[in-house]
């Protein structure tokens, strides 16, 4: 079957457009033929956009449903790190993701998580060591070693950490970084280990230092961390060293805009469209050696149409020669996007037993350590107060409960969520995804936790009377719902949490980082209260 | 010993300058300390410039003398391909270059030539196959596999060619390219073989296509090929993908200016100084993993001082903490530059015996094939004319004579040099460096050829009465003279060649490419007349 698309051909390398026809045969680009002219208002055809770093699980959607949402924004593929599900299910989780994504034409470049578990101070569902990494990294469906968060391990040249990196390099696959705030000689040492990207830059200065060392800067605009405005200039200064990513995005954010929105925002800031398109479409294909996607003859016939290079509204997304999304003509064409029907499997691991109020009681002591949460931040502060101060209505209880059946619930105190009644909880709790809940009463905490256990995963709100849950039956991380329905349900729960008095912009996102002991300063994991700064466990009451 | 240098510190990564003091101890940078202010007119300190691709032999100077000339222009190192001497002497030539350069603080990053010999249609003095390449590329003093000129071999995935590339990649060393004019799918195929640079771009379009495929573009301004003006824009468009080089430069050109002159020219064209400095100083260090040279603490204390970032006049070149060049204070400090006295060795291979006129006689035939030479071009044209037309005074004889003692002299006809009397000759004749001569009479041709044989290499002019020669006793390629003296002698011979009627801008450079059978279209080698377009030998008279 031969199909053709006529319009302005966007030649990113040549920094020009020209009138032409893309001729596709059997899903591939046969050639692009120049024509004399095209009709008024003809579309602009260009390579599809790539999300250069994303944890698909954070969308709470399966890869299939993520793809359905992404193609509406001209995103034809993603460099995806299945870090969340692999921490829950090990390679079974990886295999599920690969199989599920493989049912679509959406092009996922899969990474092998480098930090499973992320820390020895929490219990994950799996462990992948250097020896297993060396086996897995050779798989054809694995393209890179994903974010090496253990930068202390890199800096001290820990044998396990270096073994994983060496295995990836020997297999000729790039190693992704994750080095928030790292500078100077430490940064140089981190890069010299062979780590070639970072998506954690928060300042232009950080981005420049990384690019100057030959490291690619992946500019992030997620639901929580939003770095685009601060980093935009690096795209002009080092257009070949930058990519764009969403990292962690909730479904409602994904529906609003994706990499296309970053391109629009960049050009509005005065960045050349050619530099933006290098970052958005070209550089991920080169860096991750995706091997197709730049509209060269012989490539898969996967590209997009936009109205023009200023407004940059996506009109069509074409994959393997088929129009899978058309803004003017019915939106998504599910049948065109899919290669096969995904199985109905819902892999999970949820062994925790229901709890009751005595399980989350805390003893007595003269003083208490209280976690301080801040709106939209992954880090926390700490307060040390006399125990009588715990009656402050701004302080609530936080519970983290091992979902794999290993430990009893751990309870601590937290300030900042502002719940005046009820409780909220989630089985999305980076990076081990145990159950985390914050509540104004033990009864409500027990209610949301048990609701999550009954559903084998989900996000839940108890308002003191009713408990509402959005089940996440796939690994306790993902729903089977599509973006619109999922987004609507998510927004309902978000609103309910806010009605309990929570003043955070995104309560469940902030909640999901309260159990992550690799980010300072005081965190509660399923193993207990962690003094991250001193890398040790500590007592709630003392 | 601790030394310090105070002025404006040029922070290329940060795209800014700040007042500071560079503190050096034992030849290394200990730290850079910010200061409150510096004196009016204080110098600007920045990383030294790197020539990212050069054949030092083309300067006709030894590495020691090349270094002496280079440091006066703020060039502290070079990525050098000893292609010429290795084609003459094999690894003995490589070892000589490494030893000689090692007597200085000048930082040479040595490549292993990938094409020895360059062609099966000429006789070189050595051969390096894939098996030997696999051995040699592992040497610590070898940093990359140098220009892979055999692009037909790459495109057809020739086993020997691919074996050399695979060996370099297995050793973790980059592979340099050389792909003039290659486009489209052929270019993509060439890049996908693992070749990561090209210094042969002549148009912006070529440069953009290469950068778009992830290939670094080395912008060249040599004595013959001058691409800077055509390519300058790529430095703004893809500042992390570009480097600057001289490739082949004669001593007089090197004395005029080097990478510093390219920086000045770029900023005069409106290119940001920061982008120019990335190309001139930073990118070669990153691409070739030189590991020092960016003024980081712990780096060798090798950097330069300029008057300001607009005029960009080099005031000082500092190496390992020592001032090796000071414009205001005596120029070059030989003692500071040198680490050891170079040996007086002059490796060579020159077995050819003297010839007489009958050796260069041509037979009889009704028609003749005539090479057409063009000013400054490496390619030639061809004419096929009746033999009686050979009496045209614009047509001279060209002789190529194997210097290794293998073949008798080969003689052909050439047009374009415009010699009305006398002859010129050279033992610099790419890539096998046999003797090449063009002359208006057999007597003069014999005279220059025998003078070159007697001297075991050199460039020579006979004016019908006297023969003048600049001896090149090192491999028939290099003199022991320093730049100023060598340049003066070279200019004398150049002038003498022009007095014979030669209208070429640089007669000896053009002459040196007349025996190179990898560039179209009709060439004479020591083995005979080569029809390059059809890849076969052909008859002069037919």
What does this protein look like?
The structure is a homodimer of 542-residue chains. In chain A, 27% of the residues lie in helices and 26% in strands. Chain A is of the alpha/beta class and 542 residues long. In chain A, the strands form five sheets. Chain A has an eight-stranded mixed β-sheet. Chain A contains 16 helices and 27 strands. Chains A and B meet through helix 7, helix 8 and helix 12 of A and helix 7, helix 8 and helix 12 of B.
Uncertain segments of chain A? none
Helical residue percent band of chain A? 25-40%
Oligomer category: homodimer
Structural class, judged by helices and strands of chain A? alpha/beta
Q: Count of DSSP helices of chain A?
A: 16
Q: For the terminal residues of chain A, how far apart are their CA atoms? A: 74 Å
